Amino acid sequence: MKFQxxxxxxxxxWQEIWNDQVPVILVGTATCGRxxxxxxxxxxxxxxxxxxxxxxxxxxxxxxxxxxxxxxxILRKPGFPSICYGRVNPVLAENLINNFILSDDPCLEFVLGxxxxxxxxxxxxxxxxxxxxxxxxxxxxGHINPEEIEHYIANGGYESxxxxxxxxxxxxxxxxxxxxxxxxxxxxxxxxEKWDICRHSEGELKYLICNGDEGxxxxxxxxxxxxxxxHSVIEGMVIAGYAIGxxxxxxxVRAEYPLAVQRxxxxxxxxxxYKFLGENILGSDFSFDVKxxxxxxxFVCGEETALIASIEGKPGIPRYRPPYPALQGLFGKxxxxxxxxxxxxxxxxxxxxxxxxxxxxxERSKGxxxxxxxxxxxxxxxxxxxxxxxxxxxIFQVGGGITKGKRFxxxxxxxxxxxxLPESALDLPIDFESLQQRGAMMGSGGMxxxxxxxxxVEVARYFLDxxxxxxxxxxxxCRLGTKQMxxxxxxxxxxxxxxxxxxxxxxxxxxxxxxxxxGLGRTAPNPVLTTLRYFREEYEAHIKEGRCPALMCQTLxxxxxxxxxxxxGCDACVGTCTVEAISTDxxxxxxxxxQEKCVKCNTCLSACPPQYDAVIRLSPPDxxxxxxxxxxxxxxxxxxxxx
Amino acid sequence: xxxxxxxxxxxxxxxxDGKKIRAHEGDKLLWAALENRIYIPNLCAIQxxxxxxxxxxxxxxxxxxxxxxxIACTEPVKEGMVVxxxxxxxxxxARTSAELLVASHPVxxxxxxxxxxxxxxxxxxxxxxxxxxxxxxxxxxxxxIDESSPLFIYDPNKCVLCGKCVWVxxxxxxxxxxxxxxxxxxxxxxTFQDKPLGESACGQCAECVKVCPVGSLTxxxxxxxxxxxxx
Lengths: 643, 231
Description:
The complex is a heterodimer. Chain A is of the alpha/beta class. Helix content of chain A is 38%, strand content 14%. Chain A folds into five domains: 3-131, Glutaredoxin (3-Layer(aba) Sandwich), CATH 3.40.30; 157-357, NADH-ubiquinone oxidoreductase 51kDa subunit (Rossmann fold, 3-Layer(aba) Sandwich); 368-451, Ubiquitin-like (UB roll) (Roll), CATH 3.10.20.600; 456-545, de novo design (two linked rop proteins) (Up-down Bundle); 557-623, Alpha-Beta Plaits, CATH 3.30.70.20. In chain A, strands 2-1-3-4-5 form a five-stranded mixed beta sheet, with helices on one face. A five-stranded mixed beta sheet of chain A has the order 11-10-14-12-13. Chain A has a four-stranded parallel beta sheet with strand order 8-7-6-9, sandwiched between helices. The longest helix of chain A is centred in the C-terminal third of the chain and has 18 residues, at 476-493. Chain A is globular and about 90 Å long. Chain A starts with a helix and ends in a 25-residue tail after the last strand. Chain B is of the alpha+beta class. Chain B has two domains: 2-86, Ubiquitin-like (UB roll); 97-219, Alpha-Beta Plaits (2-Layer Sandwich). In chain B, 23% of the residues lie in helices and 15% in strands. Chain B contains six helices and nine strands, in the order αββαβββααβαββαβ. Chain B has helices at residues 2-8, 29-35, 88-103, 119-127, 164-172, 207-211, and strands spanning 11-16, 19-24, 60-63, 70-71, 82-84, 152-154, 178-181, 188-191, 217-219. Chain B has a five-stranded mixed beta sheet, sandwiched between helices. In chain B, strands 6-9 form a two-stranded antiparallel sheet. In chain B, α3 (88-103) crosses α4. The two termini of chain B are 29 Å apart. Residues 1-5 and 227-231 of chain B have low confidence and may be disordered.
């Protein structure tokens, strides 16, 4: 069957779904949805539909990016726009069907937004954030069923493959080159150049690898794309394979992403059935197959040479480059390695042309970037914005600002390899160069927002602990250097630091950065270097005063009950204390914490009713007044502030 | 690349520390220097190995025209290249690596069988650092010493993870009794399932002992020479 016929059929069926008089129910069941209970919601919907003997279509879809509002359900009823509901639970799901599908009440109080513009309810495009967003890679995510290839085809899928197969491979490469697309895995190497090198490297047999080993804490862009729109990645792979003359491809996905593994596996089978993969793709001379390879949980395997070793069955340990994989990669053959997002971009560039792509972005970084917003930001989830959008727009307009009305402190970009940028960097337009200049990096796109309650020493310690554990241990500087740095940071966060330690940290960080063998070591010191650069006073407070300004480092804080705020008759804290450290001072009729017994578990602070707000944290711990003495203290806000 | 150069065997000339030397095109800088009696600290380098390990991070040198120090074991020699092995930046990186190794290496040299034949000792002297480093804290691993082999002792605490023993056992001899296990700071040379060497697939050829640059693998019989230190 010709591609045009396949596409027409798919389009007709897709139209039927939406134009028919039958209601359609979409449930977001990507990992983020499942974690929030989407499968229970899906079950409740199925049960209700059976109970009410309803004629309707139910589809599982991927992640729309609004992870803060999961589980998401989209209801489409003839005569109404498609309406998306957020934070749906099984009871609400049943009610929605009973009230909206069976009666005509769209339950406005639970609506998140409508998918298309209408005069009944606000649509997503009316959200202030939509002014900044530009969804290209995420366009299909949450709107199509990732397990139905026809949904993808009906939305323009595999059109670019069919177009590409009519083109000469050098023309494809020159189009990609002209688009100035850069590797979205973090390093930003020009994609077209890489393809060109690989195409011209000697050897009949070439490989293509899609790097989906996304291991940064707080990053989930690749997962969402693989789970929500796996065919876009496969299509990009086949086009890339055709352009460089590869015969075999691998998708390297972490085994910790079981749903992504399952959906990619399913997508591969479907693509084969439709002749988008395998022998003589779409009747052409080109043959290409793709295997799925599951990584087994090593962060360092995201580094290309380690990833290749891992597929070869060897320990995932990086090797010295050159030779670069484009010349000598998998099994010694020329190998092209691209990130999930880079490959997912290819169909769009082939379809719309390089000029379309060049319109977006900054001078040196074109197109859009996908970020995973996490941490203390209101709208956690996935966002796609044009390169050059400022951090402020991203965090405050798209992300909705800081949770609980707290103050923004820093944003950690690029995971363990990236850096923490302070408030003064908020107006920085995001692109590969600007971030690097400030000591952070694009990384694969993880963005963790930190507020005034986050201790920057602790943040640096956390990320270094991660890289230390994930370092393969091959090269001296990374193996022993990061361990030395971690020990120093642990000392500082316990109040045992010395001022000379900061110098050692800085020297060591520079040497590790410059002298390590692979990218992991070369970027591991970034969180420490950037926090030292922008938040040095916090380090100094820990060292000189034994004080943690964010009241986070356990050793440097103490819990205290303010006598004048403590409601005499209330026993909430006494009851919750796990170690019986809180007793009642009978004479003064107040609650007192025995500092010797206290394990600083924070339960009394959360148990104290907000109207009293009597439990506070003090740093350094010796600020706690001696028994029998009522101090005059200026009162901090609950849980925050610094006395 | 080396394959081609062996066929052509083009000679080129370069300068290291002011000394003009000749080398074959495609040769790595480290070997060109060592063959001309110019010492550059190294632990993991194996000349026979096609792909340099480049893991000890000790052979940093400065090359004119390069912004950053380069690793001599991976850097191919080039015609007219001007190399400085004593440049400030290169020495800074090499010293940091060496100090890190010393900080996690037992420095009870007087009682070590490898005393005076130890490559690490030589490097410490060459780089002018101290055995007791002040900058870093001591990070010892306190792993059990394996004396199960009839011929030799394996002390993992002294191991610098250069990988020479693993290369000889796996690549050169094809025995595969030992290999790297674990990762990060816990990385070590060990046997399958961490069995003592005497109970492992090890055939007691003791080739590993001969290549160990430090006192991690030593013969029980003190008359048997452990590895000779390079000059």
